[in-house]
Amino acid sequence: MQIKFSKQLIALICVTLAVLIFFTNPFGVKPEAAKVISFAVLMISLWVTEALPMPVVALLPLILFPLFGIAPIDTTASGYANPVIYLFMGGFMLGLAIEKWNLHRRIALNIVRLTGTSGDRIILGFILSTGLISMWLSNTATTMMMFPIALSVVKVMEANSPHQKGLSNFAMSIMIAIALASNFGGIATLIGTPPNVAYAGFYNKRYQATIAFSDWAMVCAPLSLLLLFLLYLVMVKWLYPNGMKSNETTRSIIHNELRQLGPYSTAEKRVLVIFLVTALLWITKDLLNKIGPLKLDDNMIAILGATALFITPSGENSDALLEWKDTKNMAWGILLLFGGGIALAGALEKAGLIEQLGNWFAHFGLNTFLLIFLVTLVSLFISEVMSNVAQVIVFAPVVSGLAEASHMHPLLLGIPMTLASCASMLPMGTPPNAIAFSSGYIKLKHMTRVGFIMNIISVILITLFCWLLLPLVFNV
Length: 476
Hints:
Oligomer: single chain
Number of helices: 23
């Protein structure tokens, strides 16, 4: 018999746990630090159990910290206005415009058309198109966009393919592909997935330093592309080969979809230009700052690109490319989540808890490579059962304290911890996993099998890339 607990009861259990932590003080810390620990336990348990919406939990510091004397309201609220939040806001708005004018669909269909229509090539096309789009749109939005396209292709293959034996492997592979390719594509750029921005915001707040968009891409884009290629090999060439040859019906479906889209509209062209100019400014920002009188940063560029969308007429009607009413579909809650995480991290640091934890780990005297490996390994498997954004918010101050205690640059542990939030094994690991699993074509054992292998590959590659490339690119 399965027992179901109401969200209210779960929330009450979380509050009770936090109160017990405060009064029992199991870590033997000072009363002020015990208060911060109890609030951290409350927020983390509410995030993990999802007893309350995550953005609502992120607002709790604005109530609890001033109320219990942990930090005044102006100090607490400053975390919710961190400059990096505006980087993600601008990225969200670019993504909204790309989606509004169907540019994302055209990109995806063209990539699938170019890769070919055999079973293997269709899967490769979906991996590439999903991964490349996820570098700029959120993982969830990318998966939601690719999901109906993948379903229509599967239905066509089921109805017309002469190779019925390989259909189950094909359908399952294509669904897993759009989930995991969204996860892996998202790590390539600073705005590709919420955990990246969450960590960049924490780093900016704690160290008064920014992570350059171009520096992140130099390390993480090659890593992302390599993971996408290995995902293809693992699924199609090793675990679940389908043996389906090129099919004229599938080719005609892709061409029909593209024909229905018609030529590029004026709005699509203008969105594409603004998107490319914004990306180019992100990449060339450092060079422009050296040769010109104006000083740009990634956050300003993101807001500049978003503002241009609201100013530029669509050419289709009297409206601009993006209207404010379009932003009702934006994930405003994610921005609050960043702010709550930064406020919590600040309180933990002020109480001296992060430094104590870092010193405790540092006693083991692990070398740089082993520390990067262990942080990556633990982070990746924790992300299977915990929201990847919440995970970064909770562990960013911990790994920073560990790095400082070990006399390492914090990016050497912070970036691998962030990259390792791309859970691949379980449906609840990330929203893309859950969306793909809902198709009915994937059994849990299939996702777990592919995911476990990709997790091991990810741990190895993230460790090596961060150990070898981070010091060169970030000069740490």
